[in-house]
Amino acid sequence: MHLIMFDMDGTLVDSSKAITNTINYVRENLGFKRLEKSYILEKVNDPSINSAEFFYGTQEFTDEQTHLFEEYYNKNCLYDLEVYDGITKLIEDLKDDFTLAVATNANSDFARKMLDHVGIEKHFSTILGYDSVVNPKPHPEMVQKILNKHDIQKENAQLIGDSHKDIMAASSAGVDSVLVNWGFSDHEENAIETIEELERKIFEKFK
């Protein structure tokens, strides 16, 4: 069996409003000013920055920050949440030929709730969030954990994501990856633009 792993935010679903509103909610509670949505989305996927330091001014996420974030996000993550056009059909087309999984830097419970809300959660054998690993993406731990769980060799797997954190995680685990350009980042090169192109790439690799 072959395994296709998907990032969630910016790859399967457009959760940009909830993410930016939540980060700004935490910032305001900590006494910082709000940031523009486009700026937050550009930085949230940047592997070269320390997100805790960049958004909240601390070296690591504190309990207070995590609590504020998860409390607000849990209440608001389903508002304005949309599955990207074509993703539901893609998952339907893949589900009989591949084991499908999600590797997300979101909380696992929130991810299940969000994917269930848009009607595709049932098709994923594994949904792994940051709370299930010591090191989230771009570290390869999440990818390796999913490979091990399904006893699938790295040559028989692929990771689909909209950020360089996804590509770095896959590369470090020795797994093929595809960078997509309909998500939060605007890539100038080496990214595919359409879900039809993604489906062709997946089937071409494993036919």
What does the model show?
The protein has a 5-stranded parallel beta sheet with strand order 5-4-1-6-7, with helices on both faces. A two-stranded antiparallel sheet has the order 2-3. The chain has helices spanning 16-29, 37-44, 51-56, 63-76, 87-94, 108-117, 141-150, 164-172, 195-206, and strands spanning 2-6, 13-14, 82-83, 98-103, 126-128, 157-161, 176-179. The longest helix has 14 residues, at 16-29. The protein has 207 residues and is of the alpha/beta class. α1 packs across α4 (63-76). It is built from 9 helices and 7 strands. The relative contact order is 0.19. 44% of the residues lie in helices and 13% in strands. The protein is globular and about 55 Å long.
Helix content: 40-55%
Kindly report the spatial arrangement of strands forming the biggest sheet. 5-4-1-6-7
Q: Which structural category do the helix and sheet elements fall into?
A: alpha/beta
The biggest beta sheet is recorded as:
5 strands, parallel
Radius of gyration: 16 Å
Q: Report the span from N to C terminus.
A: 12 Å
**Secondary structure tally, helices:** 9
Report the β-strand fraction as a percent range: 5-15%
Shape: globular
Count every beta strand, where a strand is a DSSP E run of 2 or more residues.
7
Order of helices and strands: EEHHHHEHEHEHEHEH
Question: Residue ranges: pLDDT <50 for 5 or more in a row?
Answer: none
Task: Tell me, rounded to a whole number, the average pLDDT.
Answer: 96
